Every structure is written in structure tokens, then in C-alpha cells.
């Protein structure tokens, strides 16, 4: 039964000629699938609709080849050949009774246009913001007329595909309409530059073009950046209010966002739920049209408050809908504690940057709906009376036990320690990572609902003990241990003998000595987080990394700049492009990563964050004892990120009793490019 306080979230909302069945709105989000994996993409969007999102949108869809953002895989609607893939998305969304929205984009100065090999275009001649050494050409009035025609053509194709909502996109610093609007890029002296009315002329014309074509067939949304976070150099509130006075009533829906993508998708390390509220408050009063905002909302009470207090009409979500495509259905059915809350880690975002299908730490089925046939809520029933032992209650063990339990198997999960959660329980205590604890919290709640899963704590399992029971099979999810000897990307042979173990730090113990050298050759978050932790506790910390950026892989989670800033603010000394060669009573011997030139720094303690060893001894011992049906999963199979461990737990549960596959066969479906 739904909590009546949440009734307001299930009111239908009119958007132009269309009616959304509730207030849950999956805003456009990238996914690394785009035009390259069309059926995977369609199935993923369809799953969101099945989970109750009343509006389900595409990612940005390029309207023309001059918009090409090659290097990423976005949607395309360059010509009629792209329409069938979009029909597939629309059909999947409609099948579950939701509205399908398309976010049309022209990237302007953010294009790369390296695949089509044409000149990029923009309001003024400028270097491209996409990071390639090329410029965009200042558009002539003829170019502007062409752009409007390309947009119209894309709108026609969107209608042809069956979309219900068509976006005009002027946000994230990624689009030509924002570039015209913003004084930052627009130095024009004609009727498209200068005053706000002139800079907004193209946006207004394109919205009018789109409205004229959509009429009663589809609604027209505008996604607008309401503060570029650049102070007086960029768009901010005063101009947005002026703009709303001019065009506030024009589209059928306003989708407000703030800053660029890295702020819009801030990680939980830096921003909490509702972080954009201060910027969007009061904007809804400037239009009678419905408004959608995001804010990584997972709490239905907060969502209801947002609607009641007149901040928004729709609860927009990208990440909460990725972590839990069934979030609306769960609120509707009064199953709020079943919501799989996003932890704000941005592994989903990283997939887009890495140009691989979207993945999610909390939802292992994300991106696997079609190619592996996984569902975020369902799994096929058990196919035998196997009694399964899962050893280790970290992310992979919890995930495996939960899905095996849902399949109906009798499962025992044993954990050596006093608490469940493994690495997430430990890492959630680090600065900024508390939300990561949700990985364990969700699974613990779910396991408690499964009478066929028995969880035992303080039960370290040995091979001898396991052989004495009648379990087949056994999943070993015993995690991994950080190496202290320096072996990693830089060093291939052990070099350190006196490093303070990372796992000791994670367990809450601290070294004696004040000057700490953290050697980060892992390049994701942990080296940086440990440096921050120790600096905040009063240690004098130097963070040494052979990369030119600290926590360099976090460019993919869009946190790198903020991590750098936070470390500097915490007083950490940063030594990039540098390796630690040795550490002893005299301090640390460092070497420049390019020249090899050496120098020493004073240091009492070394913390070496490089690589991990899988804790898989149990597997070998069981096999030696003649127990064949045993498999390591998660970090004990292959140390990786938390998302990999969760995924592997799910894979184990899916594979149990599945027909044997040829060991060399690709374990998922794929779409192959059609030959010309
Ligand atoms: P993963 O990320 O693969 O899930 P973790 O390191 O997070 O791995 O979790 C591994 C868990 O396994 C830890 O909670 C650890 O205490 C537990 N564990 C390790 N060895 C044993 C064992 N022999 N018996 C039971 N639990 C174990
Ligand atoms: Fe949230 Fe992380 Fe999943 Fe993205 S990957 S939806 S940030 S839990």
C-alpha cells in the first residue's frame, strides 16, 4: 500500500499535448551505447518504463554530422537511416505505457567532427571545448538558416520514430543553443549577438520551429543551464530571469540544470541529495509550464516536499533511475525500503567516458537487460535443489546470496567478521564515502526478507570445515588484500619492506610517525582518500604518483579537479609525475617519472596503494581436498572496483545451473555492424 504522503508523486501531469502518468521523469542521460548498441539501449530504456518512470528520455542525439561528438558514442539522427533504431527505443518505452522523449543536440563548439572531417561551427570562431586541437568556425546567417533546417529535419524524424517529447537542448555547456546564449562564446555583432534578446534569438526560433512541427503530436521541452557557475563571465540568475520573461511560456516543459556535466552529476563525495536546489528555487514561479529538476533524489519524502513546495512538477532522475529502474513502482507499492539507492559513485558516467555500455555499482543488470537478459528485479527460479555456501559477506558475496536466495536456493552466507559489507563497510568510513555503505545496506535488508538464506557472522570458514558439510556448490567471496611491497603499474618487483599496510589503515589503525608518504600507483580514489584522511587527522602528508594527475582515473567519474582541490585545501603536498623508489629510516627516495632524476624527502611512514592479491587460498585448499564445485567470485577471483564485485556476484547467481557454455563462447548477445 502506498503511503498517502506520496500520493502527490502519482498525479498525472500534462505536458503540452501529452499526459505523463506520474511525476517520475527519467531525464536524458548518456550510456555509452548510443548509436552503436541500439537494441541494448532500447531494452534499457524499456526497463525504466516498466519500472514506472512516466517519461523516459534518450541521451543527447546528434541532429547532424557537424555535431559529431566522436570519441563518445551518443545517439544519432543524422538522416533517415537512423530512424529505425529510435523506433525500437520508442516501442520499448510505449510497451510499458510511458512517454518517450528525445534530446536533440547540436554540439556546436563542443563537437569533435573528427569522423565526418568537417569544420565544426559556433556562434563565434573559437577553439573547440571537446579537447581536440581544432577550432569551430563562426556561423554566417546562411549557416544559421541551415542549422534551423537541420533541427527541423531531426524533429520530423523524431516524430516519425514516435517520440512524445522533443527537447531543444541548451545546457551542460555542450550545445550550440547555449553557446549562442552565453556571452562566453558569443561575440557576434549581428542580430544573434549582443543583448540577451539577440543571444536568445536562435533558441527562440528553434523552439518555435519545433513547436510548429510537433503541434498536437508531441510536447516540446527546453533543457536550460540556469547558471554556468562562471560568475559574471557566464549565464546566471539575473539573465535567466530576463530570459524566462521573454520565452518562459513558449515550450511545453522546462528542464532546469546547473553548471556543466561534472556538477550536474556530482558524486556523493562532493554533493548530497538535492544539491542544485539553491539555484532552481523560484524558477518555477517564472512560468506556468511544468518544470523538471534533478538532484540524485532517492527519498520519496523529499520528492513529495519538492512538489508540494512548488520547486518542481517532475522528479527528474538519471542516476537514481539507473541504480533502481523500479524506484517509482516501489514507492507506488509502498515498498520504499526496497529502493536500491544510488551511491553517487559515477561508475555509470565512467562507462560513457570509456565508451562501453553503461554499468552501475548498485544495479548489476544495468546495460545487461538485452545482451545478458538480466532484469533489475527478477531472476529465473532455481533449477535444482543445490544447497549453496557463500563464503564472505562483501559486495560480491551479498549480491550472490541475494540473487541465489531470490531464485529459491537454500543459501548459507558466512562472514568471518562481526559485520557484513566487506570493503564497502570499511570504505564508507572514509571521508566523503559514507553513501557507499548503501551497497551493503540494501542487500542486508533484502537478505532479511529471504527465509531461505541464513547469514552467520564471526564464522571464518576453513576448507576442512566446509568439506564436513553437504554444500554444493561453494562460492568463495573472500575479497583481496592490498600489497605493501610496491608491486603495481610502476614497480614489477617488490621494492618496499616497511610500508604501513593499507588494510590496517582501513581497519582504523594508524602508524607512529608524523610524516607520511602515500604512493598512489592505483590511480583511482583510494590513494587520494587516504591522503585526505591522514591530513585531516594531523599527519603531514605527501601524495606521490607517477601520473601527471592525482587520482587520475577519476577524470572518468568527473571528480578529478575537485579531488585535486580538496587535497590541496587539506594541506596534502602533491608530487605528480613521480615514483617512490625506496623508503627507509632516511625517508623516501623519489624519482621523476620522465627523467629518472632522484631526490629524497623526509618521511617516517610509507603507505603504498598499488595492487591487491586475491584471497583465494580457500579455493585451492578445497580443490586439494577433492571438492570440485567451488568458484572464487568478486575480488577473490580478480580484484577490481566495487561494481565489478557486485556484477560478479550476480553473474554467479545467474550462471548456477545454467546450461554449460563453450568456454570460448562470448557470454552475451551483440549487434554486429551491417556490411554495406
Ligand atoms: P568483494 O568486494 O569481492 O565482495 P570484500 O573484500 O569486500 O570482497 O569482502 C570479502 C569478505 O569476506 C570480508 O567481509 C571478509 O571478512 C570475508 N572473509 C574473508 N575470508 C573469509 C573466510 N574464510 N570465511 C568467511 N568470511 C571470510
Ligand atoms: Fe549511482 Fe553509482 Fe549506479 Fe551511477 S553507478 S547510478 S552513481 S550507484
What share of residues are in beta strands?
15-25%
> Judging from the principal axes of the Cα atoms, what is the shape?
globular
Q: Radius of gyration, Cα only, in angstroms?
A: 26 Å
Q: How does the helix and strand content classify structurally?
A: alpha/beta
Tell me the number of helical segments per DSSP (H or I, 4 or more residues long): 22
Annotation, overall tally of beta strands: 28
End-to-end Cα distance: 54 Å
What ligand species are in this complex?
A: adenosine-5'-diphosphate, iron/sulfur cluster
What is the overall pLDDT average?
97
| Low-pLDDT residue intervals, each spanning 5 or more residues | none
What does this structure look like?
The chain has 676 residues and is an alpha/beta fold. The chain contains 22 helices and 28 strands. The protein has an 8-stranded parallel beta barrel with strand order 3-4-6-10-11-12-13-14, surrounded by 5 helices. The protein has a 5-stranded parallel beta sheet with strand order 17-16-15-18-28, sandwiched between helices. It is globular and about 80 Å long. The mean pLDDT is 97. Iron/sulfur cluster is lined by residues 319, 322-323, 342-348, 360-362.
Architecture blueprint of SSEs:
Layout: E1 13-15, E2 18-20, E3 24-26, H1 38-50, E4 55-62, E5 75-76, H2 83-95, E6 99-105, E7 120-122, E8 126-127, E9 135-138, H3 141-161, E10 165-170, H4 176-181, H5 196-199, H6 201-214, E11 219-225, H7 237-247, E12 253-257, H8 261-264, H9 277-280, E13 291-293, H10 300-308, E14 314-317, H11 319-323, H12 327-332, H13 347-354, E15 387-391, H14 395-407, E16 410-414, H15 422-427, H16 438-448, E17 453-456, H17 463-468, E18 474-476, E19 480-482, H18 502-506, E20 515-520, H19 526-536, E21 540-544, H20 560-569, E22 573-575, E23 578-584, E24 587-592, E25 598-601, E26 605-609, E27 612-614, H21 617-624, E28 630-632, H22 642-655
Parallel strand pairs: 3-4, 3-14, 4-5, 4-6, 6-10, 7-9, 10-11, 11-12, 12-13, 13-14, 15-16, 15-18, 16-17, 18-28, 20-21, 20-26, 21-22
Antiparallel strand pairs: 1-2, 8-9, 19-27, 23-24, 24-25
Helix pairs in contact: 1-2, 2-3, 3-6, 14-16, 14-22
Amino acid at each position: 500500500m502506498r503511503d498517502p504522503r506520496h500520493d502527490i508523486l502519482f498525479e498525472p501531469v500534462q505536458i503540452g499535448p501529452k499526459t505523463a502518468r506520474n511525476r517520475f521523469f527519467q531525464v536524458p542521460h548518456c550510456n555509452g551505447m548510443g548509436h552503436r548498441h541500439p537494441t541494448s539501449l532500447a531494452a534499457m530504456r524499456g526497463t525504466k518504463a516498466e519500472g514506472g518512470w512516466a517519461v523516459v528520455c534518450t541521451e543527447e542525439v546528434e541532429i547532424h554530422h557537424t555535431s559529431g561528438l566522436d570519441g563518445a558514442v551518443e545517439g544519432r539522427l543524422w538522416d533517415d537511416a537512423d530512424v529505425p533504431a529510435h523506433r525500437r527505443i520508442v516501442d520499448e518505452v510505449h510497451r510499458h505505457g510511458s512517454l518517450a522523449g528525445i534530446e536533440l543536440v547540436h554540439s556546436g563548439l563542443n563537437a569533435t567532427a573528427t569522423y565526418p572531417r568537417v569544420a565544426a561551427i559556433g556562434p563565434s570562431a573559437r577553439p573547440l571545448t571537446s579537447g581536440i586541437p581544432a577550432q569551430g568556425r563562426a556561423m554566417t546567417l546562411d549557416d544559421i538558416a541551415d542549422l534551423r533546417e537541420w533541427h527541423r529535419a531531426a524533429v520530423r524524424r523524431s516524430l516519425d520514430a514516435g517520440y512524445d517529447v522533443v527537447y531543444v537542448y541548451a545546457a551542460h555547456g555542450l550545445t550550440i543553443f547555449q553557446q549562442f546564449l552565453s556571452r562566453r562564446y558569443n561575440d557576434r555583432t549581428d542580430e544573434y549577438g549582443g543583448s540577451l534578446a539577440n543571444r536568445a534569438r536562435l533558441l527562440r526560433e528553434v523552439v518555435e520551429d519545433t513547436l510548429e512541427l510537433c503541434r498536437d503530436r508531441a510536447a516540446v521541452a527546453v533543457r536550460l543551464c540556469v547558471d554556468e557557475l562562471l560568475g559574471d563571465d557566464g549565464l546566471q540568475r539575473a539573465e535567466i530571469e530576463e530570459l524566462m520573461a521573454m520565452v518562459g511560456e513558449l515550450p511545453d516543459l522546462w528542464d532546469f540544470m546547473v553548471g556543466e556535466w561534472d556538477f550536474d552529476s556530482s558524486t556523493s563525495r562532493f554533493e548530497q541529495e538535492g544539491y542544485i536546489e539553491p539555484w532552481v528555487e523560484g524558477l518555477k514561479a517564472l512560468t506556468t509550464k511544468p518544470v523538471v529538476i534533478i538532484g540524485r533524489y532517492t527519498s520519496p519524502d523529499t520528492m513529495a516536499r519538492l512538489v508540494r513546495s512548488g520547486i518542481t512538477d517532475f522528479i527528474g532522475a538519471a542516476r537514481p533511475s539507473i541504480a533502481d529502474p523500479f524506484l517509482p513502482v516501489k514507492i507506488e507499492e509502498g515498498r520504499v525500503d526496497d529502493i536500491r539507492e544510488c551511491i553517487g559513485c559515477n561508475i555509470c558516467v565512467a562507462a560513457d567516458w570509456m565508451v562501453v555500455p553503461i554499468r552501475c555499482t548498485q544495479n548489476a543488470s544495468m546495460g545487461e537487460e538485452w545482451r545478458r537478459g538480466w532484469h533489475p528485479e527478477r531472476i529465473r527460479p532455481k533449477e535444482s535443489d543445490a544447497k549453496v555456501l557463500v563464503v564472505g559477506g562483501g559486495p560480491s558475496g551479498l549480491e550472490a546470496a541475494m540473487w541465489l536466495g531470490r531464485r529459491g536456493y537454500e543459501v548459507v552466507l558466512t562472514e568471518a567478521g562481526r559485520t557484513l559489507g566487506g570493503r564497502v563497510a570499511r570504505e564508507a568510513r572514509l571521508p566523503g564515502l559514507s553513501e557507499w555503505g548503501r551497497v551493503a545496506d540494501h542487500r542486508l535488508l533484502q537478505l532479511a526478507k529471504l527465509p531461505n538464506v541464513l547469514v552467520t557472522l564471526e564464522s571464518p570458514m576453513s576448507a576442512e570445515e566446509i568439506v564436513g558439510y553437504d554444500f554444493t556448490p561453494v562460492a568463495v567471496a573472500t575479497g583481496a588484500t592490498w600489497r605493501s611491497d610496491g608491486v603495481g603499474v610502476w614497480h614489477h618487483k617488490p621494492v618496499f619492506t616497511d610500508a604501513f599496510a593499507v588494510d590496517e589503515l582501513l581497519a582504523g589503525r594508524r602508524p607512529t610517525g608524523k610524516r607520511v608518504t602515500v604512493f598512489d600507483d592505483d590511480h583511482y580514489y583510494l590513494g587520494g582518500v587516504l591522503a585526505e584522511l591522514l591530513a585531516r587527522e594531523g599527519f603531514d602528508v605527501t601524495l606521490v604518483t607517477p601520473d601527471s594527475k592525482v587520482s587520475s582515473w577519476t577524470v572518468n567519474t568527473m571528480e578529478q579537479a575537485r579531488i585535486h582541490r580538496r587535497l590541496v585545501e587539506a594541506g596534502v603536498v602533491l608530487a605528480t609525475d613521480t615514483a617512490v623508489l625506496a623508503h627507509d629510516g632516511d625517508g623516501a627516495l623519489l624519482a621523476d617519472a620522465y627523467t629518472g632524476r632522484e631526490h629524497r624527502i623526509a618521511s617516517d611512514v610509507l603507505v603504498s596503494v598499488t595492487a591487491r592479491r586475491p584471497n583465494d587460498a580457500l579455493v585451492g585448499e578445497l580443490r586439494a581436498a577433492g571438492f570440485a564445485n567451488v568458484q572464487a567470485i568478486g575480488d577473490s577471483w580478480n580484484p577490481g572496483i566495487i561494481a565489478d564485485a557486485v556484477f560478479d556476484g550476480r553473474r554467479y547467481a545467474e550462471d548456477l545451473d545454467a546450461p554449460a557454455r563453450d568456454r570460448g563462447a562470448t557470454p552475451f548477445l551483440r549487434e554486429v555492424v551491417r556490411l554495406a
